[in-house]
Amino acid sequence: MEFHKPKPVHNWRDLFKEIGIIVIGVSIALAAEQMVEYFHWRNEVSIARKALQDEIISIDRFYIRRIGLAPCEAKQEQEGDRSPYVHLDGVNDREYEVDRKTQFQQW
User: Where are the chain's structural domains?
Assistant: First the structure.
């Protein structure tokens, strides 16, 4: 590849020609960069949209299940004094709250 030494500018026409070549080259480079950025962000947005759709679907499933279980939970609360929310150690919510209050009173 040959490189030519820059020539001195002798008139205004040559100066504007050199400036025009530089401006066109920079414009082409910036346009190419913007095109690459456009495709990159288009891909990022499609990934984010898919993630949001999946999250909305999972939240919808959770609340549909909660709505379906609500009558059963209400019936269990009315039938017995025992809370339907039993912890893993077998203590229900009411016993847990009483236990927590006594712990704070001791301090």
Answer: 12-106
